[in-house]
Amino acid sequence: MLVNDFLENSAKNYPDKIALITDKGRYTYKEIDEAADKVAAALIADGFKKGDRAVIFMDNEFEPVVSLFGILKAGGIFMVINPTTKTEKLTYILNNSRAVALLSSAARQSVLAAACNNTVSLKNVYLTGDNISSIKGFYKKIHSLADVINGGYAGRPESRAIDVDLASLIYTSGSTGSPKGVMMTHHNMISAATSITQYLENTPEDIILNTLPMSFDYGLYQVLMAFMVGATIILEKTFAYPYKVIERIIREKVTGFPIVPTIAAILFQKEEIKKKNFDNLRYISNTAAALPESHIRKLRVYFPNTKIYSMYGLTECKRVSYLPPEQIDIRPTSVGKGMSNVEVHIADENGNPLGPNETGELVVRGSNVMRGYWELPEETAKILRPGPGPGETFLYTGDLFKMDEEGYLFFIGRKDDIIKSRGEKVGPTEVENAIYAIDGVLEVVVTGVDDPVLGQALKARITRGNGSNLTEKGVKKFCLNHLEDFMVPKHVEFVAELPKTSSGKISAHVQ
What dotted CATH number matches 239-340+355-413? Predict the structure, then answer.
């Protein structure tokens, strides 16, 4: 089985069903499948070969969905790049992957021109928008993506890949400052999607609304999983207009809503949302960063009849664990147990397994684990290490966890983020969770800053909710009453907004 079979099978079983809803229209499985066939045929006619790489650089819309499946049908490897990416980073990814095709929008030509003209491997550019033929500044061959999609039906290209071939490169931040391409095979992605749809209990009746960019694997998999089971996916470009999204959830009778903690924080600023009827919303899922306990309590108030799935994953294997909804009130700070077909344990600094309630690095084994980093064998060897059994490979996540006697996982923090203050090791997540329990706190991030006496002092940066009069003294007093003294922040700063990554996760590394 291949990832493009998700679309082809659903098009066969549900040809006239609405598969995709965007601001521009509603599209059936048959329409998307035929359009993807045309994209594949055009790529192949323009010299695209099995294993070639193609970049998708567009907002959440019909065209990137069609493009990624077209690339797969052509036997290629797709890369979805965040539409806000600037020229320098786009140029790096194009050259690092040696992409031969770029699918984007004419509206981005100022970014594209410089990137395309500095990419030796690039042969063809496919653009949405008007007057494509009049665009100047590209030395590459430019095509109208609309003309490709609306052209004569060319039939389905013969399958050119097998499940151990790469399906995608997902670029993620690298320790050297340059992004690293996470190599995911068809088998990797199918394994992850299968396990996730099983525990979310996805069916063809599901209607999933996604506001997350498809460049973020959490957003990408919403499309893949919906197409895998024959469900309907609604793509929003952003959550910047929460009322619009909420009204769409109600109007379209949405059953699944993936979020990150920043989306929850925005919702909590809209008290009137609590009065809305969300009877059709079967589940809310969260990943990227653990949901603070206070967020969970508020979500239960806003969505009283909706299941809440707290999950953990990383790009290198997509998903690791989930907390069954019936456990959310019992152990709200847990991200659950390893999902189906995944094996997890906690290891010390020497790789030795640790017992219950001991802090160590989370280690993962499963068919969802990446093949490695694109052309970075040394970086790959650091994170993918051999296990004790023949042919076993373990993924060392770089995240510190504890596991209780029943196998439930509790996130402590990134190994690199641990703060050493007064000779003690402090996990910033524990301090952040305590501060989130203070009335008036909307978002918080805790970091370490150099201190001549303490080594590192804790600094909390906080955004306050509407009408909050919370003070530095109030924060410190609360922390003194709920945390060990070495965990109390020395510095408290109130800010209008905390910096976010492109996936909506609070960034701890921007001061």
Answer: 3.40.50.12780
